[in-house]
Design brief:
127 residues; mainly beta; 7-stranded mixed sheet; 1 helix; 48% strand
Length: 127
Amino acid sequence: QVQLVESGGGLVQAGGSLRVSCAASGRTFSSYSMGWFRLAPGKEREFVATIDRSGGKTYYSDSVKGRFTLSRDNAKNTVYLQMNSLKPEDTATYYCTADSHSAQDMSVMPFWDLEAWGQGTLVTVSS
């Protein structure tokens, strides 16, 4: 099974930008669709974005569409979530996930059914 390690979280002011990364090891990275979910205090884990195996298709939640961009580099076994125009409500722990289903399926599956998760990276957006 693939192992995932997130990095790049931190504190940023509202309107700013931040990029979080997820490095994968283990089974063939390019065989997995990848994605990000987030968990804010007092809320349920929320879908953010997914990307297909080749990086050609991406899916976003309405709350981040137009502000966040998900990409992957299969040569580096890494996915990147570029977050722009950040808002205080984006404050959360961001979790990288991998699954053998399609990126579109990942975007609607219950999060507990997804195959692999990282440990999370905290993003805090100050107002």
